Amino acid sequence: MSRLRLFIPLLVFIALALLFWRGLSLDPNYMPSALENRPLPAFTAATLDGASISDTDLRGAPALVNVWATWCPSCAAEHAYLNELARRGVRIYGINYKDDPAAARRWIAEKGNPYVANILDPSGHLGLDLGVTGAPETYLIDAAGVVHLRHQGPVDERVWQRVLQPAFSTLENGASGR
Amino acid sequence: MIVELGHFALILAFGLALAQAALPMAGVLRGVRAWSGAAVPLACGQFLFVLVSFACLAHAFLTDDFSVRLVATNSNTLLPAWYKFSALWGNHEGSMLLWLTILAGWSSAVALIGKDLPIEMRARVLSVMGMIAVGFHLFVLLTSNPFLRSFPNVPEEGRDLNPLLQDIGLVMHPPMLYLGYVGFSVAFSFALAALWSGRLDTAWARWSRPWTTAAWLFLSVGITLGSWWAYYELGWGGWWFWDPVENASFMPWLAGTALLHSLAVTEKRGLFRSWAVLLAIMTFSLSLLGTFLVRSGILTSVHAFATDPERGSFVLAFLGVVVGGSLTLYALRAPQSSGPAGYSLLSREAALLANNVLLVVAMATVLLGTLAPLVVSAMDLGRISVGPPYFNLMFVPLMSLLAVAMGVGPLMRWRDSSGASLRAMLAVPAASCLVIAIAFPFTYAGHWHAGAALTAGLTAWLAATLVAGLRQRLRERGGLRALPMLGFAYWGMVVAHVGFAFSMAGAGLTSIYSDERDVRMSAGDSVTLGAYEFSFLRTRHVDGPNYSAERGEFTVKNVSGERVRHLKAEKRDYHSQMGNVMTEAGIAPGFLRDLYVSLGEPIGDGSWAVRVHHKPFVRWLWIGGVLMGAGGALTLFDRRYRRPSAQQPVR
Question: Above 0.85 for ipTM, yes or no?
Fold first, then answer.
């Protein structure tokens, strides 16, 4: 019988391992966005190309809104994947956050442009209204400009497959079905 | 080319690790001595090739080869050469290569130094170490390859090492820590080898003791360095944050300390055998757990490694194999009874048992606090964080009890001590403990403080019991003449216990008596903090090799108006990191107190947010850590660990 007692450490470890296994699929940095299920804040701003843009211009179809900056290393890492998404036909708007527009233009010229349009937010006011905690961050909005999801950190194939695409497809189907 | 050679050498080393895991094991199972003996050259060969691979990566860093992705993201041409070298392990991939190098180093050390081990035992130990190495080789080669190139777009300049890491503390901290973490793999392998052979005897404890001590001393020094670094580099004067990653290094230390002491009982008395094996497994498992927690991104921490769930899955699987496998082996093979108890309540065995229970409870406390946020979020109950209040609440009583036991333990005899002689020896320590506990708060601060009384009293208790122990030993061996004959192991114990007393006193008194103020100051302003007056003289612009800085100069005077110290605190702007401003605190270190100034933000009109600290006894924390390491090192020079050939024929 006392042999069974020697299995206790193993059982404790198995419990811990199950906990870790579950923990791997949780994001410790995840914070629910205050904006979820609410429309984007109203704004009017300049774009990187010098045009003017407002929140209503983003409506019409589901889209991603990607907060980025040239000073952010993870943004550089995700940029190639954004290009790929744009090539697959995903509408992506950029918010160039607390950045230098000249540097941002060079960046786009060098790395390619996945964005339908880039909203300039050099002072970070728009970011503040959105509740941005750091770049990169990506919001999924529907055709009416309502925020459905927020993802903090770079978007890659894994994030797209597991987090964004399921919601995105639902929105797209919903939009075409209406 | 050299980079590819490094990659190739690493693959060869992986092959040798496979052979090191398999061949000696086959040799033991089939009884082929030559195969068992092959463990030694295989371990040395594996180390050699990992070392070549490490050197190749170091070469890439030192020559600014930005075609290597790791170099481009972590180094910079302006970086001083010393930091280019340490940038190698300032990131996930490179630090895993360092880990692997140290693992191979320990295993070749066992191969070379463990010559007097029976050949079968050595083959078993090295085979287990080979298996661990195989896992880490796979991890590095498959998920964290440091040798990846980025062709054809080779950047002209590297992104630079995080400025926080450009510091001597960080050059030293990870290698020391890893020497400790990985060093416990030796004790682990000895434990598994003993379980495997079914010979859990005192010889096993004797063999693994020096290795455990060596790993423990490196871990002690590593943790101390980390705490010291956080103190002067992060700019807010904290020295321990109960951050998950700090806890990850503290848990193996607590378990390793328990292991160290229980191995003593196993060696001397043949008791606690299953328990010591379990501790050896636990200690190394906690080191692996630390790796998992840091690399998987499963918990939020200030130690932000580039985290990646894929890597996390790999380490978790590896953890499952190593820990699950060894605990299964333990459950099936550990001896069921530890033999006749044969010791009384007043014996050294009992004191060491108390030590073990307290240390393991402390370890479990840290584990619980570290994992609680994960448990809560896994159960979808929301998000919590466990902070210092929980840990302090648990640690003050646990460490106090530990200190009490630590005083009595060395005075006890094995099996049984007489209550009367113990009472006689403990009379003076108990009295001095009481006197100091009452007197200290009043003489130091002028008013009563229970925490300070407890800290000072326990420190006095430890010091006085060590003196009592010394007197007892000398009396038994014929007076002062016996002083040189007490042996390194004894002195090592004394030094390490003095170190613990220092750290405990430092932690307690700093927490109680530290004082800090945040003020707005412009040149010419003064602020008084306790008995010191800090004056802000001026700011100056200074240029470093890869940064420019605003340097604030301060003088500090004591009550009588004497100038005590001139302090320089800097706000550094590193060229490569736009907008990433680092605080370099100005510190006047002292045995009894530190004075600490850090510059905050410029507020405009030439004034600055300034934080001044008065931190009494803060150095004692690290003095204690270094003494613990030194104590561990001393015991390694004990006569019983010298080669028989070098030993004087006794008698």
Answer: no
In chain A, the residue whose alpha carbon lies closest to the alpha carbon of B312 is: A24
The total number of structural domains that make up chain A? 1
Walking along chain B (651 residues) 10 residues at a time, the average pLDDT comes out as 93 96 93 90 96 96 91 87 89 91 95 88 94 94 90 76 77 91 95 89 89 96 91 79 86 96 89 90 92 71 56 86 93 73 84 93 92 79 75 91 93 85 90 95 92 95 94 86 84 95 94 87 86 87 85 86 82 71 84 87 80 91 95 90 50 35
CATH number for the domain that contains residue A159? 3.40.30.10
Among A6, A22, A97, A162, most B C-beta atoms within 10 A, so best to mutate, is A6
Least Cα separation, residue B375 to chain A (angstroms): 7
Q: Residue B43's closest CA among B112, B119, B120, B138?
A: B112
Whether A165 maps to a domain, the answer reads yes
B247-281 burial, b at 16+ Cβ within 10 Å, e below that, comes to bbbbbbbbbbbbbbbbbbbbbebbbbbbbbbbbbb
* CB–CB contacts below 8 A, A to B: 75
Helix (H) or strand (E) holding B538: strand B532-543
Phi, psi (deg, nearest 5) at residue B575: -55, -40
A79 part of a folded domain:
yes
Rounded Cα distance between B362 and B499, Å, is: 19
Residue A34 neighbours by CB distance under 10 Å:
10
Record the pTM. 0.82
Look at B298 and A3 and tell me if their CB atoms are within 8 Å. no
Report CB contact under 8 Å: B331, A7.
Answer: yes
> Which residue from B312, B319, B334 is facing A17, i.e. has the nearest CB?
B319
By C-alpha distance, the chain B residue nearest A9 is: B327
Give the residue numbers spanning the domain of A91. 34-176
Rounded to the nearest angstrom, the gap between the alpha carbon of residue B433 and the centroid of all alpha carbons in its chain is: 30
Strand partners, A152: A137
- Residue A90 falls inside a structural domain: yes
In a domain, A28, yes or no: no
